[in-house]
Amino acid sequence: MKAKKINVSSRDKIFYFINDLFLLIALIVVLYPIIYIISSSFSSPNAVSTGKVVLFPVDFSLEGYKAVFQHDGILTGYANTIFYTLAGTSVNLIMTVLAAYPLSRKDLKGRKVITFLFTFTMIFSGGLIPSYLLNSNLSLINTRWVMFLPTAINIFNFTIAKNFFENNVPEELYEASQLDGCNYFRFITGVVLPLSKSILAVLALYYAVVHWNSYFEAFLYLTDESKFPLQIFLREILILNSTENMDPSALAARQGLADLLKYSLIVVSSVPLMVVYPFVAKHFNKGALTGAVKG
Amino acid sequence: MINKTKTLPLKRVKEPFKKNFKRNYQLYILLLLPVAWLLLFKYGPMYGLLIAFKDYEISKGILGSDWVGFANFDKFFHNYMFGKVIRNTLTVSFYQLIASFPFPIILALALNSTRKKKFGKTVQTLTYMPYFISVVVLCSIVIQFLSPRMGIINEMIRFFGGTPKDFMADPNMFPHIYVWSGIWQSCGWGTIVYLAALSGVDESLHEAAMIDGATRFQRVRYIDFRCILPTASIMLILNAGQIMNIGFEKAFLLQNQLNKDTSEIISTFTYNVGFATAVTDFSMATAIGLFNSVINLILILTVNKISKKLSDTSLF
User: Fold this and answer.
1) pTM attached to this predicted model
2) Which residue of A33, A124, A171, B67 has the lowest C-beta tally within 10 Å?
3) Which residues from A are below 8 Å from B123, CB to CB?
């Protein structure tokens, strides 16, 4: 409401006060666990294991982060996850555009049938064991390929992209560029993609988040520790409490350091997405919504 | 994903396929790779569903194994876990459906009503954040916070003079932990669709209401809320189509020997039958998966039909 001149009645003042108070409480509820984790990660092992941390770091220390970066598994996992995320997201974007652009063209024969074949798999799939058997027959098990080939296109994202192209890339544009002697390949790289920056940014974020956080594929298909992504190591350390690779100096400090390591690890593993997200956030209104809601 | 049902399509002049193909052949070339991928990775596994009706042996392969009809389904229906996994799945999903539904709506209305635009934007951006946390990290946060030894929740209980409790070991707590951690993670993200709907509210409605002396609260109640009601009902209906489709990861990661009574759901049970028992049974695990997929399919189609009838909006 841009009605600055209109006097706000006292009842409305109470409403605005309660409304903002509610937002503040919601913010605290959502943020408190995150702040608690960050503060704990900068505290001393002793302060963490005796539960002294409430809001701010107690006995500021970087021990936790030191332990994280000395852990071989974590570094391997981090490197692997970066690789899977970059390679996987690139494959995702290329494949999604290759599928979505042609199927967005209303004059393409067979478009309805092929689109149906894509969307049908969103509501019915072979399931866990048949997928496992297929990947096993294709000799994909315990290879890096299994981390991004079977998930090359997300059908939901494909639909968003297709709707976006339908609504934002007029067919007349192609006809015009054809007159200039432009073929489809050049048309897509030179005209369609630059027009679709916002949706590409949003899709890249969606895909990257999935790869960064992906756990199940690796858990099911990978057996070599050297290929494990970060999430597998995270589960071992955070949930199964295995800290055997650590090198704690004293027995008493061991538990404290193990507790502290968990908090630092949570921060280290989650920071990249939190940093990238605000840069993509501005595209959400433009990209995600025009793609999702077809007028 | 929400498609309005099409109004009259424009009639195109029929074009011979040959001419159309000549003009569009490059598009078909572009489609080759994605369609090959689709057939291999999405339709390939459907062929493997055959083993739900067979006694699968690795040495004999999918085709070579013996047909057994519906014996694998029978085995599942008579398994002592059958009733339990169905009940657990439905408990968690219905609880989640009902409990998590109102929060994004209330938050979106509040975000839309605040006069402090900067503050609103900050709250909006910050409440999205938990959505980016991985399931593994979310589950570990839950376990850490609820830990009876050093968890913050038990520290608070101790502070107020109560006795600490091992929440993760209590089967009765599992649905609560599952659902409320989910609300914490995705409430902020869930506001996106409602904020989009609210941005489409006609300003003149508000102006007219203000002239009539409506308070801000009345305007939220009778204008904003009414305007997002269709979106809300669609979201509810679509979510209802997913009630048998609770994902594997979170339940599996929060599961332990002590809470298994309520945490074993269809997807974790399928995994356990297929991979994690002494005598793994691929055929029965496939049968369970197929049973679940068929129910999902029926649910989604039904829900889609209802939504189409009520509001002209559908998924397909």
Assistant:
1) 0.87
2) B67
3) 23-24, 26-27
